[in-house]
Amino acid sequence: MNSILEILVALLVYPGFLFSFAVGGIFYWLYRKVRARFQARRGPPWYQFFVDLIKLFSKESIIPYSAGGSLMVLAPILSLTSLLLVAAMMPVGSGSLVEFEGDLIVALYFLALPALAMVIAGISSGSPYGSVGSGREVSMMVGYEIPYALSALTVGFSIRSLSLSSIVGYQLENGSFFLKYPLATAAFLLCLLPKISRRPFDAPEADTEIIAGPLTEYSGLLLGLFELANCLKWFVIPAFAVTLFFGGGANIVEFLVKCLGLVLLLSVIDIIHPRYRVDQGFKFFIKWALPLALIDFVRSLILP
User: Fold this and answer.
1) Up-side HSE of residue 48: CA atoms within 13 Å toward CB?
2) How far apart are CA 275 and CA 33, in angstroms?
3) What pLDDT score was predicted for residue 94?
4) Residue 153: closest CA among 287, 296, 291
């Protein structure tokens, strides 16, 4: 009974949902605050995202008559659940909630599901803006998922283990992988931007062109679930990069400081760059990110 209770507490509180939600919300607020400062604005207070989320959850979800109701409901649940499962596998501080050999591969699959959920959301919404956004999301996924996966597998093949805990343990003893595989690290960091839908690769949700893309017809609770998933991305995706390339953390403070550094880096890149067209974004990943990832991937297979 005690073991079951401990698992539930870990899943719901730390290092599970509440912890990831709180940290992701703060990181998302920092992004908005930094962007506001660059634009000579004050920006929102730290609690603004949480207030907005409560407001969305209190409203009714309206599903258009022409939409696919079940798929519209499934999409945000799929996105949120996949991110929570990755958070449970992440070695944070003292360890991870779920740990097994091959969890790197599982995490890569789960981290592809939020983008797939956006595709499902747009297609099922019955909106032309949603359909355009879904098409853009698919095009971007084809461009960035391959270098993203190759970069992640580089560190696993380097130590001949696909366990996230083993990857962190190796780095704590031998140094971070970004020093050994700088090209794969650069490719991986470039792929983080479309993963969290930030410029210059945010064409699938370009508000000045297609309103909100796949989320145009979403409202109330369902939109709130997507916003909650977006909040979790701001923690889970940088945390995954810290785990693979920046040594994880000997303690929770070190881990969060490294995540914060990545959040600030991604925020600045988003702020200073204009949005790429979909074809430009796709060509960028094929021309630059994929070769960088391939070079270090081959090195990981050859070098001891």
Assistant:
1) 12
2) 20
3) 56
4) 296
